[in-house]
Amino acid sequence: MSVHSKARKVTTNTLQEMKRAGEKITMLTAYDFSLAKLVDRGGVDVILVGDSASNVMAGMDTTVPMTLDHMIYHAQCVERAVDRALIVVDMPFGSYQGNSRIALESAIRIMKESNGHAVKLEGGSEIVESIERILTAGIPVMGHLGLTPQSIYKFGTYTVRAKEDEEAEKLIDDAKLLEDAGCFAIVLEKIPAHLAKKVSEAITIPTIGIGAGLDCDGQVLVLHDMLGITTDFSPRFLRRYLDLETQISGAVEQYCSDVRSGDFPNTDESY
User: Fold this and answer.
1) Which residue numbers are catalytic?
2) What pTM value is reported for the model?
3) Comparing C-alpha atoms, which of 244, 179, 239, 242 is closest to residue 211?
C-alpha cells in the first residue's frame, strides 16, 4: 500500500457526489514526480497520467507510439508525488482494443505496478466488452468519447467531432452505454458545447470536457499546454495560465550568460 494512501481524499465516489451537488471537477495531466506534486498541492481533483506524454514528454507526433511500459513508468512517478488527487492512467493504443482478455491483463498491470486508482479507455460500443471485463476485476474505468486521439489515423484530423446528427446520436448512445457498463466518468473531447450539455444531462456519471464547453461536470487540460511550456499547440479551447516557455528560456539564457561572464558563482555561492 502506498505511503500516501491515508491522506488521499478524492475517490470515484467523490466525483459522483460532486456531480450531484453541482460542484465542478478539476482535472489536469501530469507525467512526472515534481510537477505532479505541484498539481496535487494546487488542489486538482483528478490527475490524468495521459498518453499525451507521447507528445509533450517524448516529442512524438501522435499518442499511438506509447506502450504499456511507458504509461506504467509515468504513473509510478506521479503516484509517488500525490496525496489527494484521484490518479487515472490512460491505457495506451493496442493494450485494450479488440481483445478483452489483453485489456484486462493490461489494466491489471497498470494497477499493480503503478498504484494508480483507475484507467481510461477511448471509444464507445467498439470497446465496451473490454471495459466490462476490466470492471469484473474491480478496476474503475473512465470513458473517453468525441475526439479520440488514438484513432487519429482513422479520423485523419483533429477537428471537432460529432457535428453531424448521426455521429452526435451515436455519441449520446455510447455515453449511455458506458454508464450502463459501469464507467465512473467520461471525458468528452472536442465536441459541440450543446451536445456536451445534452450528454451531461442524459447520464448520471460525471462528464469532463476538453473543448466541449461549459456545461460538462468538469474540465481537463494538458498541463504543459496550460502552463505555456508547449506553445506549438494552440486550439481554441486552450487557456494558457503562464508563459513558461519564455520564462524558462530567459532563465537558461541568463544562467549561460552569468557562467560565461564569471558572475556565477559568486563568493556567497561558493564554499
Assistant:
1) 189
2) 0.94
3) 239
